Amino acid sequence: MGKERSEKEKVGGGEHNKRNMFVSCVVMNSCAAELKLVLTALLVLCSIATLFQILPSRFAISASDLRFCISRITTTTTTTTTTTISPLNSTTTTTTTIAPLNSTTTTIPLTPSPPSAQKDQVADNGVIKRVFNPYGSAAYNFITMGAYRGGHNTFAIIGLASKPLLLYSTPTYQCEWVPESSSASNSTFSTVSYRILPDWGYGRVYTVVVVNCTFSEAVNGENSGGKLFLEASTSGGGDKNLNITDRFEVLNESPGDLNMSLFSSKPKYDYLYCGSPLYGGLSPQRVREWIAYHVRLFGERSHFVIHDAGGVHEEVLEVLKPWMELGYVTLQDVKEQERFDGYYHNQFMVVNDCLHRYKFMAKWMFFFDVDEYIYLPPKNTIKSVLDSLSGYTQFTFEQMPMSSKLCLSADYGRYYRKWGIEKLVYRDVKRGIRRDRKYAIQPRNVFATGVHMSQNFAGKTTYKTEGKIKYFHYHGTIAQRREPCRNLLNVTEINFENVPYVLDTTMRDLAWSVKKFELKTIGPKLQNTRQ
Amino acid sequence: MGKERSEKEKVGGGEHNKRNMFVSCVVMNSCAAELKLVLTALLVLCSIATLFQILPSRFAISASDLRFCISRITTTTTTTTTTTISPLNSTTTTTTTIAPLNSTTTTIPLTPSPPSAQKDQVADNGVIKRVFNPYGSAAYNFITMGAYRGGHNTFAIIGLASKPLLLYSTPTYQCEWVPESSSASNSTFSTVSYRILPDWGYGRVYTVVVVNCTFSEAVNGENSGGKLFLEASTSGGGDKNLNITDRFEVLNESPGDLNMSLFSSKPKYDYLYCGSPLYGGLSPQRVREWIAYHVRLFGERSHFVIHDAGGVHEEVLEVLKPWMELGYVTLQDVKEQERFDGYYHNQFMVVNDCLHRYKFMAKWMFFFDVDEYIYLPPKNTIKSVLDSLSGYTQFTFEQMPMSSKLCLSADYGRYYRKWGIEKLVYRDVKRGIRRDRKYAIQPRNVFATGVHMSQNFAGKTTYKTEGKIKYFHYHGTIAQRREPCRNLLNVTEINFENVPYVLDTTMRDLAWSVKKFELKTIGPKLQNTRQ
C-alpha cells in the first residue's frame, strides 16, 4: 500500500479492545457439531490424499497451499491442526500449521505430497535462472456479508476484498444466475457488473466492495427458484501469472419465494435507521434514552437496525429488548466481521449491507450514531420535513455539538437521576470548524452509501436543511459508564478549555415528554437502568 | 460511535502496528509434547479412517480454498488449467478457475466437494447472527528468493511477504534446522529470529523481508548435511481467528558440502558489484561502455553481478558475454520476480539477495546503476581509496550529474561513433538540490542493505569521501536506443532548460584508455555494437 495510515484513538470513543473478538467464533458451536466437523474434515483430507495417489506427483498440491482448506476446518473446531505432508518422491517437506490464537496445539499428520520447491538453474550460457517459491496465503480474495435483489434483473453483493488487490490490480466481478430446475433453462451471466468502493480509500488488510450486477432480462421471473453466484477474479493481483476466479453462491431463492411486487409497493416503513457497528463498553442508560427519544420522534412507521460489533453487552440488550419485542428494533450481530481487518469495525460494509437489505422496506433511511439526537424545530414534524424534501434522494443536516461534561449547578445532587440530554446543556459554539454532517436517503435510488453521505445514487442531494432538521451530538458520552457531569455551572456562557459554550436547553426541555412516552409505551421496566 | 477517525499519513517506513498480543502457540510447545501429540493424532486418524465410508460428507473442504493448491499446479505446468469442482451431495457449488493471463484455457476437473456456505441465523431472542464467508486467496504469505548461511550458526532468508500482513499484523518468523541423518540428533530451532524490512516502507502487494535466524550453537558442525526450514506465521493477519504457520525448506546442505573456513578466509574478490534489476530496452553500446570502464577500474580481483529483470535482451547479452567468459560477470535471471507486485522490480529484494549470496566472496561491495560511472581523482587507485576507508563498514560518495543530450560542436559528424562518456560532456551544476549518493560496504558486517545505503550493519559509516571517490551519472541514457546528442555546443558554460551546465571533460579524457583496455582484453568482437 502506497500510504501507510496511522489511526488515532477516538477521544472518548470507548476502550474497546479490537483484539478480543477472535475468541467469539469458537464458543458458538455446539460440541456435537464440532465433533462432526472434525471427523468430516479428516474424511476430506483423506479423500484428497487418495486422490493424490492417482494424480501425477508433479501436479500435487502444496501443503502450504492447503492452508486455507485447513483454515476453514480450524475455524469451526476448537482443536488445532498441524498438517505434515510427506513427499512421495522428493526431498522437500512443507508444512502448514494453523493455531487458533487462543488454544493449545495438537497435531494431526496428513499425507499428500508437496512438489519440490523449484531450484535455481544454470543455463548453458552461464546465466543463473532464479526461481521464486511462493507459500501460503495472507488474505482472502473476497468475504461476503450479504447479497440482495434490487429489482427484477439486478442484485447487489456486499463484502470485503483484499485492499492491495483493489489498489494495485483490477479484480473483476461477475454474477451468474443458475435456475433451480436444470431443465428450465441454462444459467445466465450478468451483462453489467461493476464494483463500488464506498469507503473513501480507507481499509487495511481488507476494503469494502459493493458489487452491482445487472442481467439483460428478468431472472427467476417464473418464480421457480435459483441461485446467484459471484465470480471474483484476481486478474493477476497476487501473482501476475494467474487470473484466479473464485466462484461461490451468494443468494438462493427457493421456488415461490420471490415477491416481485416488493419492488414497486409502498414500503413497510416510512423511516428506517441504519446504525454503524456498536463496540466497547456502552452505557445502557444512554442507549435507553437514545432509543426512547427516537422511537417517539420517528413514530409508529419507523424501524431501527442496530449492529452489534461487541458493544451490545447484556445490560445494553436489556434496554433494547422492550423495543425489539414491540417490533421497533432489529439487532444484527456482526461480531464475526472483527476477524477481518478493515476500517473501524468494517462500518462501511455494515451500512451498505443495511442499505441493500432494507432498501425496499423504507421510504427514508437515516444514518447517524447513538450519541446523536435528531431534532426538528417547533412546528415541524418528521413527516412535514421529509415531505418537503421528497424531491431529493439525499439530504444532509448540521451538527449541534454538546459538551460531554458541563452541567447545571441547579441539578446539583440530582444529576445522576437525570437523562443525558437533560443535564448536558452546554453547546460548543466555536466558529470556523468544519463539523461532520449526517444524512438521510431515499434508498430505492441509492446504490452504495457511506458514513457521512452517499456518493452513489440517482437523483438530487441538498444541504439546505437549516431550520428543518439538525442533530445534537453528545460526543464522548456513549461509552462512558460513570457520571458525565464533571463541572457544574450557573452561567449562560463560558469559555471552557479554550472552547466557548452557551447554555442550550432545547433538548433538556424535551426530556420530560420522552420519559413519559417511554413509560406509556413499554412500562416502567427500564426505570432502574444504570449509567 | 461510528465517527470516522482522522488518519494521518506516516512519514517514512518501517513502522508497524502494535499487535503483539498474538503469540504463536506452536513455538511454545516442546518437541517432546509435539511428538506425543503427533503420534496420538496419527492413531486417531487411522482409527477414524476406517469409519469414513459410512459418514455423511456434507462437510468438506471449500473448493475456493483449494485455489492455491490449484494455482501451484498451474504454475508448474505450461498448459492452462481451469479447475471445476463439482459437489458430491450438497446443493452449493463453489468453483475456482485459474487462467494464466496470457494463454488459452483447457479444463481439468477435480473432485473434492465444497461445504455449504454458512448461513445467517436468528437466535431465540430475535438477534440475527450474521456470518461472513471468506473465499480464495489474494496474496501469498511468503515468497522466497534465497537463503544463505552467514556463519557457523546463523542464516539469512531473503524474500517477499504480504505488505498489509506486515503493516497491520506482526507475522513472526523462525528457523528450524533438521539434520540429514535422523539418527544424528533432533532438529533445533533458532533462538534469535528477527526480520528486517529494508525497503523504507515501499512495497505494494508485497514488501521485502530479510529474516535473520541465529541458533544457540553451530548447526551442521559435523558437516553431515541437513536442511533449514523457515516457519512463517501470519499471527492472525488475514483472519484474526487464525495463526497460520507455513513451514518450508529454504536451504539444503548435502553431507560434506559445508566449508566453514569460508567465513574466516580472505575473500575471493576484493570488489564485487551488485546491480539493481535491469529492465526495459537497454542500449547495448552504453552497457558495453559501462562494463569495460568498470572492469578496467576495479581490476582483476573484481566481479560484477548483473540482475536481469527483462533488460538483458539478446544484444545486451552479446556485450556481456566476453566478460562472462573471462569470469568478470555473473548474470542472474530474476525475471520471475515480476510475478509478484512489489516496489520497482523488487529491487530491494534483489540487492539483499546479492549481499547475502556473495557476502563472503568480496571484501567490498558496490551498489550503483549501469548509467553511473565510479571516478577516482588522479593519484588515487581503487586500492588506495578503499584501504583508506577500511575502518568503515560503509561509505557513501557523491554524484556528478551529467546532461543526457548536450554535446560538443567539435564532435559534429562523428558523435555517433563516440562513446557516451566521451561525447556527453556537460555537467549539471545547479545548486541547492539534494542529489542521491551511492555507497559501498564491507559485506561481512552487514545484515541488510538498500539502494542508496545500508541501515543494518555493525561498525561505522562515513560520508566524507570528497576528493577520494565520486560517480558520474548519465541519467536517461541507458534505456535510450537512439543517438543521445541533441544539442551541439561550443561553450564552457550554458543555461539550458533553466539548468546551468559547465563543460567537464573528466570522463571524456578517460575514454581512449578504456577503449584500449577493452580491445586488449576481449579483442575487437564488440566494435560494431549498436546504440
TrEMBL record, chains A, B:
Q: Which UniProt keywords apply?
A: Glycosyltransferase, Membrane, Transferase, Transmembrane, Transmembrane helix
Give any GO molecular function from the UniProt entry. glycosyltransferase activity
* Claim: Secreted is one of the keywords in the record: no
Chief site of localization? membrane
Question: Matching InterPro entries, A to Z?
Answer: Glyco_transf_92 (IPR008166)
For this record, the Gene Ontology CC terms, alphabetical, are: cytoplasm; membrane
Bilayer topology reads: Single-pass membrane protein
For this protein, the parts annotated as crossing the membrane are 37-55
What EC identifiers does the entry list?
2.4.1.-
Q: Which Pfam families match?
A: Glyco_transf_92 (PF01697)
Locations listed in the record: Membrane
Family (UniProt)? Belongs to the glycosyltransferase 92 family.
This protein is called: Glycosyltransferase family 92 protein
Species this protein is from: Populus trichocarpa (Western balsam poplar)
